Amino acid sequence: MSTIRLKNLTKTFYQKEGEVSALKDVSLEINDGDIYGIIGMSGAGKSTLVRCLNYLEKPTSGQVYIDEVELGSLNEQQLRKERTEIAMIFQHFNLLEQKNVIDNICLPLLIAGVTKKEARMRAHQLLETVGLSEKSKAFPSKLSGGQKQRVAIARALASNPKILLCDEATSALDPQTTKAILSLLKEINKKLGITIVIITHQMEVVREICNRVAIMEAGEVKEEGFVEAIFDNPKSKAAKHLIFKDAGKEDHVLGDEKVKDLLKGGKIVRIVFTENSAFEPVISNVILKFNTPINILGADTKNVGGIAKGEMLIRLPEDAKLASEMSAYLLERGLKVEEVEADVY
Ligand SMILES: Nc1ncnc2c1ncn2[C@@H]1O[C@H](COP(=O)(O)OP(=O)(O)OP(=O)(O)O)[C@@H](O)[C@H]1O
Description:
membrane, translocase, ATP-binding, ATP-binding cassette domain-containing protein, globular
C-alpha cells in the first residue's frame, strides 16, 4: 500500500506556437488503499498528471511524494527502482503481439532478473488471479478486449507494485466488459492491498469503484473528495456537468439536442434518493399537493461505491413561485435537490 502526495504540481509545455499549461498548481493526496478517480473531459490534463505522478514526465514545478519519498530528489537509478513499484495499464493494452500470453507476463520478470522457471510459475499464478488460466498459450490477436486487459493487469502485477495507475483502461471496452474489469480491479485492491489510481472521462467508472475523486478541467482540480458526497452534492460547474451528463445516459431519454430543447422550458432539477426513500410517493405527493404535473425527464438507480442511489431529472413548471415551492417541498422531505443550469450542460 502506498500514499501519493502531489504538491503544487505544474507542467508547462513550451512549443513554437506558444506555451500550454497542462497542469496548474495541482495538489492532491491519495491514501493507502484508495481507489482514486481522476476524471475530466479531453484535454483536462489527466494523462499529463499521471505521467508526472511516476516521473515519466518531469513536472515544471512542484513535488511528487510516494510514501514521503520525493521523486524529484532521486537519481535515475533510484527513480527506476521506485518506478518498479508503480505499475500502469492503458486503454490499448500495449501487449507484445508476437509473444503469447504467458510470455507477455513473464517479460517484466525476466527483465528484473527472475529465472525463467520462477517467472513462468509466477505468471501462471497471475493468470489465475485475473481469471484467464486457459489462455496462457494464446496470442493477443486471438483475445477479446477484456481478455487483453486482463493479461495487461497480470503483467502489471508481476513486479508486485504498491500502486497501479489505470489510464483510460476501460475506455475501449463495452459496458459489460468494463464492469467485469472494474470488479477485477476492486478485487485486486482489496486482496493485494494495492492503491489504484483511475484516469477516466467516464463518470460511471468513478461511481462504480472509486472511493475518492478529483475532477479536473483545464489543468486544474476543480473539486475533490469522497465520490458519494460529490455525487449527492456537486459544487463546481465541472462536477455538475459530468454528473448531469451521466444522469441522462442510461435511459437514453436525454440526447444532447433534446436536453438543449428541454432546458428552454421551466427549471430542471436533479433529485437524489437514498436506499431509504422511494421515487414514487414523493413525486405523486408533490403533484397532488400542488395540483400541477411535473415532467419526469429521466430516472434510474445507480451504484455509488456499492450503495444504491436513485436519481431523477424533473422539469418544474415555468411559474417561478410554484417551482420554488415545489423544490422547497422536496428538500423538506430530505431529498437532495439540485438545479441543473443551462451552462452546466
Ligand atoms: N507533449 C506535449 N506537448 C505539448 N502539449 C501537450 C503535450 N502533452 C499534452 N499536451 C497538452 O496538454 C493539455 C492536457 O493534455 P492531456 O493529454 O494531459 O489531457 P487529458 O485530460 O489526458 O486528455 P485526453 O483525455 O484527451 O487524453 C492539452 O492541451 C494537450 O494538448
